[in-house]
Amino acid sequence: MSELAQRQLTELAEISDGAIQLLGTVTESGLTTLTVSLDTSGIETANGGIRLRARERFEIIVGPSFPDLHPDVNVAHRRWAGTPHVQWGRHLCLYAAPSVEWNPADGMRGLIARLNLWLQRAAAGELDPAGRPLHPPVAYHSYKHGWVVVRPDLGDLVPWTNAGPERVKLLYAWCAKRGKRIDVLEWLTRQQIIDRLVADDLRAQGENGVAYFAAPLVLISDTLEMEYPTTAALLAGALDTYGLNRDELLRVLVNARIINKAIGVTLEGDDAVPAMMLLGTPARRLEPGVLLAHITAWHLDDLGADITDLLQEVSPEHVELAARVRKLAHDWLGFARLQWMVIHEARPEVTRRRDAGSPLQWLAGKRVLVLGCGALGAPIAEQCIRAGVAQLHVIDKGAVTPGILLRQPYEDADIGYNKAERLATRLSRIRHDLTVTSSSANIVTGTLTDPADLLQYDLIVDATADIGVRVGIERARGAIRAEWPATISALFGHTAQRGVATISLPGATGSGHDILRRLSIDTAITAPAGWKDLADDLFPNPPRTERFFPEPGCSAPTFTGSAAETAALASALLVSAVSVLASTDAEPMTAIGCDLSPEVRGPRPVRLGWRNDVILPDKTGNYEVRINARALAELRTETRRGRRVRGGRIETGGMLLGSFDEATQTVLIDTVAGPSPDSHLSAAYFDHGTEGTQEIVTSLSTATANRVGFVGMWHTHPYGVASPSDRDEEGMADIVAMDGGSRRALMLILGGNAPIWEGWLDSGTLPNIYARVINRNPASRQEGMVAPFLTSSGAWFPGGYTYPTGQFPTGAGERAGIGRDQ
Amino acid sequence: MSEFEGLPARGVVFWPVGTGDSTTVVVDDLVVMQVDIHDMAKADDDDTPEVAVVDRLVEALPAVGGKPYLATFVLTHADKDHCLGFADLLQQVTIGELWATPRLWREYNDPDAPELCSDAVAFREESERRIEATMKAVSAGGVPASGDRIRVVGYDDEQSSHAYSELPEEYLAWPGQSLTMLDGNECAGVFEAFIHAPFRDDAAAARNETSLSMQVTLTDETGVDGKVLLFGDLAHDTIMKVFDYSEYYNREQYLAWDLLLAPHHCSKRVMYKRDAEGTEQLQMDVLNAFERNARPGGTVVCSSAVFPDVDVDGNNPPHKMAADRYAEISDEVICTMSWVDEGAPSPVVFGVDAAGARIIRGDLVKSAASEAAAELAASAVGRRFAAVTAAAVAVANKIPRSAAATTVVAGPERVDAAVTSDRGGRHAPETPVGFGR
Fold it and tell me: What is the pTM for the complete model shown?
């Protein structure tokens, strides 16, 4: 497509009135060189920028891939060599990120505009604007000479941070070698090396063929030219001017050799560690004013390695021989070509994490336990590793089967092996600094039976999607809520396109099992924004009857979905869940939903949060009673309504709706009702009627797929004691039986002296609450049966959920001032 | 720096004389060399203002024996724009020595040769007179006197048939030779002229290609030197021959230049050749040769009218495309008729002193010149260069002011304007920025 480039340039030149001139075109081995002259008059040089003539000539080299790839721009002269962004002395580095800066549609116009801008900036000395990272010098390296991963920060070890006279500093890089790869593990001073040598603390051989050795690092306080020297002579000359003469340079190399020999490093043969030298110059910058080391690595050629070895071998007693070897070394420095190794920077001080701004950064440094290593747990565990967790333990008792390979990150060779172990092995390869541990324990019968072990984690991810595990966690954490780690439970829908995750913070009333129940109830009647499809998927009502069995007859039902969907959904759920953990305003319990189905419309599912329940012991000691925040608010609303419409001393009450969870021995109160219209309300006694109550219970129960039903009765003792009166005790067995209600029922009495009671009514502080689970009389109460002392009309208020009609009953007490049991 | 205030004592002045050459090399108070002359007062084309050049030059020259004295006059070739006014000069001034090329006689003997202008004829006749005088002096066992001297520079195969064929070697010179003697004054150490052309092979080529070409080196007493390359009206091939020869003989020092007088008044024929289709093909070899031999800060001077905005095919020099190419290989391109101001030119003054070899800028040229004029009257020493400068300034001042040049738009703005216009907008349509690595 060089014709296109040429045409574009010709057209541009035609209308430029001579400002742009195409001087010549040469095509050679597929590359077309367009010689272009630009009017560069009037560009002032400042801040050490390049000097421009009135016109400048450029060689624009267009490849066959133009305009998909940008052409290269060279100059024929070397006047700008040594300037930032001029490489090889002649190549102009116009694009820092061609993939986003080069616009193929703009073609040569964009290139010329870019070049024009580059020239002005280069002349103004603004190619490295203050506050931006310096363009690191380009050492023309090759993988052929090996590659070096630099991990530890140099920090204050560099000689240029303090104003002292020290301009050159010598350190040693303690390195690990695997094949041609070298990892710098730590920086040591000569003394530290010696100390470790003496303490016999340096090993030359590690596991899996890893060899350890020391390589010298020379830090100089001046930057070399932008183009690093290509010969040892040039480098030695440059180092000499910066304060390290040739003898010192040779001594550096020899010392490293001596150290390695002492450690027992293999110096010869195929397994030999390379003879290499690292060089650090202050050419990097992330923050203005703070210069950081730019590190390059020089691989000595074989002759150099031999000569340094000789230098080190030759005894100073042999004066003449030593001199000859030294001369040989100097000669070698004079003609050797430099072999620059490839550097891969991993130092935190010069790199930035690519996951900056991701909620997953919350995971960095955290200790994480992942339960379940399937389609949900395995991707989540991997994301945790990449996000930088400090510890990861994975548990799954299952084995890898052929069928899961299409969507779980395992390999054919893993079939038959424990999932957790195979996952841990693979994940351990991702980071050099973390080994993932695993267990094939049964979570319910093993892991959760000794919860103390689990308290060491910062986060538990329940990715089992297993009710037994959820209930097990719920039970295990019930007694130690405050210490229990943050817990995420996640679930896929039946096609792995929708999923939910619950997040419970330490101290939360419940975790996955509990929160999922709340979620299913809250989304059942009126689904919050974005939750309709999720609720239909996760909590279908009526429940889904068709299920997918991967191996009919011999397998548990599961979801359908591909690796793409499971990986995406698991990751999306993790991000949302961790963002809740990372936020500062999360409720103790949260549920998030992800809808990745291609047909998704409307708003995204809103984050749902729940405050902690009020938790009471049941007086029988068997159950834990939990009144959720909504039910508590409803209790207060009805109590306040009673005071308003019937006077402050008249009792009120109604049904408690929720469920008994026998697995966790919990009574859950989700909502409450007020007095039915046929109830009798007085200052002395509350007698609950039956009118309409069955309808309420049935409707709720149907809507929530039986999750919410009748669990008992509540009433108040305004200004009184929160415990059953004699009459309460007498009537207790008569608590109305409801269809679908359990044989057990909860009796809840709210009371308290004046400050407590008024505090409850006026400010919402908790009243005294009495709770007791009782066994109900299975026989229904006879129709129309009312406590004898309430038979006289005028002694009571009727129930109902609105303002009473007609006159106030005369004997039921005034709005205020009627004592109990009058 | 006080001693460097004012003009240097040694240098070269390029007179603003339209498209034509008039170059004065001031070696010292006494020794002045004139390379070509173009007296605009005698030009008959309408574009050239009628300004007397010879009269001003004469006033600035030293007086010897009561008559203005010019040590050496060099005629690069016998074209009108290089010799106009010579006859007048000869009349008013004692010219110690003439440097001539054999071409004069070749053309004289060639009935088909283009006709010579009267000044060229005067130059040839004066040369012949001097050859005769020299032969006479030599045969008398002496040397010719100042005013009778001549040096014939260059070969001609037909040398034997010409009047100068009998001249002893010291009155001849040829390419590859270095000259330091001017009219009997030994100037070694302060002046050197290295002869590059005419080449023997080009003796029969077009007149322009037989131009005398040389490198003039002026050296200050402190050892600082300045080098000026003069190529006359040579075109590409002959110039390349100059470079190839000297580089082949490792004489790069004779190719170095602080100042290059653009050959043939900024002609495109220096670096462009027409191919078979009639398309101008850029010759990078000569540009590279110029560039690699340039010293830091190298300046190109074009002794020509103001550059045209557009080159029209067939037009005579100056050519804009040549000026543009010079801009790419030098720090500065100066046109004598638009320096410093297109509306009112002033001479281009190249000075050499301890502060370096450089183009003298700013008010120094005019103020020093006017001062010099006064001092010259008082026969002050060391001001010959200033006096010549003053004379050239006087010539410049006589040139009618032309309309002020249009506002100069900086290069980057022009480039941007072209891109914007071609693109149809200031910016290209934004492309979506996304990532995948």
Answer: 0.76
